[in-house]
Amino acid sequence: MTEFELIERLCAELPTNPSTVVGAGDDCAVLDLGLPGRWLLFKTDAVVAGVHFQPDTDPARVGRKALARCLSDIAAMAGCPTHALVTLALPDQFDVAWADGVYAGLSRLAEQHGVAIVGGETTSSRERALVSVTVLGSVERARCPLRSAARPGDAIFVTGELGGSLASGKHLDFEPRLEEARWLASQVSLHAMIDVSDGLAGDLRHILKASGVGAEILADAIPLSQAARAVAGVRASNSSVGGAHPPALVAALTEGEDFELLFTIPAGEAVRLLDAWKQRFPDLRLGCIGKITAARGLTLRERDRAQPLTLDGYVHFQKP
Ligand SMILES: [Mg+2]
Hints:
Layout: H1 3-10, E1 20-22, E2 29-31, E3 38-48, H2 59-76, E4 80-90, H3 96-112, E5 116-124, E6 130-140, E7 155-159, H4 165-168, H5 170-173, H6 178-187, E8 193-195, H7 200-211, E9 214-218, H8 226-235, H9 247-254, E10 261-265, H10 270-280, E11 286-293, E12 297-302, E13 305-308
Parallel strand pairs: 4-5, 9-12
Antiparallel strand pairs: 1-2, 2-3, 3-6, 4-6, 7-10, 7-11, 8-10, 9-11, 12-13
This protein binds magnesium ion (MG).
The site of magnesium ion has 6 residues, from helix 2 and strand 8.
């Protein structure tokens, strides 16, 4: 059973109540607890030794990543993070300096974004250390981009460059796109938005599924990172993954942990956005990579041919 099959199974009959605006299935839960004009955002995430970081990774970077992943999900809702809880599970023979380091990394990033760490839990874990973070935030009700809001004709955009995040270390040191996301929500009619955590192919499919639409993306428009190109160079000779696609493109579509913003807006606003973005964020790339279609499915256009994209993003518990 894959991660997404498990999630679907576990979420099939979850209890709910009237203050739940959006439950499981978006980047954050969206809650209406009566704040005038605002919804609360609620998110939890965990990083595990050997999966999301290596045992010899600088603990400050581990702590930073654990919080940054949640902040990236708050960004995907164009929200503002406010509070965090931290659960630390440590092996019996743990190193105090490691735990201190995790908290130092967590605290530094929290301070940068005005997030208060207001509690948590410490527990033991026989084999592997785990850091789980829960974040609370809020968003203007009228400006909360849900995964389900993409419409046929929308232009699809992505920030930054994709692929090679694990090889380059970006997965530990990425900047959650909070400021960019809130600026976008204030400047254009944001329809759907998600952060790229599982890979462009997988995360775009989450939007398509939730919105009941399809998409056509242009291979040449997908922003490939230097790291994706470098990884691709190594991999080209000894891998059959991705079939006929160039290896750097496969890396950008499937590797994940990029933590960039993927979003859709009405096509008529695309040119104005590109222009305003360059003025506001001159150091961060923004690319239009395709369009939303009424016809379901995800199509990749490579030069003169368009074909269904069969590649998927990263999935935990892959089928053997
Ligand atoms: Mg997300």
